[in-house]
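WARN  no MSA supplied for this record, continuing single-sequence
INFO  ligand: S-adenosylmethionine
INFO  echoing inputs
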Amino acid sequence: MTEWLYGEYGYYSNYKEIGKKGDFYTSVSASKFFGGTIAKHIIKLIDEGFLEKNTTICEIGAHKGYLLADIVQFIYTLKPELLETLSFTIVERFDFLQIEQTQYFQESFGGVVKLSHVNSLKELNLYSAFFIANEIFDAFSCELIYQDKIGTYEEGKIVFNEENSWVKEKAKKYHKDKGEITLGYEEFALEMAGAAKTFEFMTYDYGEMQARPDFSIRVYK
Ligand SMILES: C[S@@+](CC[C@H](N)C(=O)[O-])C[C@H]1O[C@@H](n2cnc3c(N)ncnc32)[C@H](O)[C@@H]1O
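INFO  complex generated
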């Protein structure tokens, strides 16, 4: 599944378009106000003193960069002086998307707002950060399980005959005997914990449609 999503010919390694011919629409494409509400929230966190004025706003898996650009746009509208102190960065695995995101920032802000990139959270070592990720948790690969055996595809059908101690342990811990066990969440959380001292992480998978995050966590150090 990892190969299918992120390998050379993988879905995310090559996807470009949103809409009928491409990937599903997310709230990012539907309205700039999604980014607007997040910008308002970030300003509140800074005003309350939880985040510093020189916080790094970091989007993870940003596709064309529309959401982060909307956040910048609304910070400019609501509290423009913050643009002098904030930094903007994107965690993006794919070079072709890093190029598109840089171009979009250039077209939108004419070089006034700087955007930096990293390939992975492991490269960041920040003091104060706001992490935002839209629709990425459902883009992690997973194992399909049935009674703690892993499913593999054989001669046109899925058979459950492989064992793996890590999958078995997780299945037991979360009381699952069928369905999916997602890979990579723990590593992602640990990488984020090492990426910044004080941060808030907010993520949406389905909740964006209901205007509430599926998950948000504050970490103080
Ligand atoms: C469904 S797309 C969502 C894109 C965009 N956030 C949006 O809302 O339109 C999921 C994206 O997350 C990226 N992704 C998944 N896991 C990631 C990780 N650990 N680090 C960085 N990007 C990741 C994928 O490469 C893909 O571009």
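The pocket of S-adenosylmethionine is lined by residues 12, 26, 28, 60-63, 91, 93, 134-136, 139-140, 188 (CB under 6 Å).
INFO  checksum written, moving to next record
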